[in-house]
Amino acid sequence: MTLEVRNATTVRTTEPAVAVDGEVRALVPPAVAHPGDPAAVKKFDEAALEERHSDMILIMSILFQWLRSRPGSDAQPQQEQLWAIPVPSDIRQAVRKLMLTGDQVRAVSTLREAIPALSLVQAKLLTDRLAEQDDHPTSYAEVVRELRTRDPELDAQLWSLVEKKAETEIVRLLRERLGVDLRVANEIAEFMQESV
């Protein structure tokens, strides 16, 4: 891996690293990078872990800024479809609390742990939405009810497919029209089929 540091110096490193304020910092602690080296394992302590955590927060903050400013970003269409991804009440409260304290990195991390189907961009947009709105669905039942009012045509098409037991078509249509992940589309389809 080659890094360009601020003073135009080229640094070669064999471990994943990042340049921060002109310094090169490893992203993988020595104990993780070389598990067979007892000396490296001994040196790995809480201070090293905290430093790595700080580095990751910096990297995620830079990534969020880049995603926000990227021309041609598809953030707007994704934000419009986030209502179709339910967030359990306890996770929503935890995310809102973290957002109120300004810890968006941890809020995004909490959301992605709870809903692995979320991409980083979706999680970032959804944390913003949860901080601003109280009416986000907490279950697939709420998503299906909301779908009826938001897109009656799609709702009718889906229920017609449910009657035909065309699960693959239901999932395909949900992904195409709502832009949701395969896992989320499967969950919505299963809920609709079970509620018949």
Structure, described:
By secondary structure, the chain is mainly alpha-helical. Helix content is 64%, strand content 7%. It has eleven helices and four strands; from the N terminus they run E-E-E-E-H-H-H-H-H-H-H-H-H-H-H. It has a two-stranded antiparallel ribbon with strand order 1-2. A two-stranded antiparallel sheet has the order 3-4. The longest helix is centred in the first third of the chain and has 24 residues, at 46-69. 18% of the residues are buried.
Mean model confidence by pLDDT = 77
First-residue to last-residue Cα separation: 55 Å
Along the chain, the helix and strand elements come as: EEEEHHHHHHHHHHH
The total of beta strands comes to: 4
How would the global form be characterised? elongated
Q: Roughly what percent helix?
A: 55-70%
Please report which band the strand proportion falls in: under 5%, 5-15%, 15-25%, 25-35%, 35-45% or over 45%.
5-15%
* Rounded radius of gyration (Å): 22 Å
Number of helices: 11
Largest sheet, strands/sense/barrel: 2 strands, antiparallel
Sheet with most strands: strand arrangement: 1-2
Residue ranges: pLDDT <50 for 5 or more in a row?
A: 2-8, 71-77
* SS-based class: mainly alpha
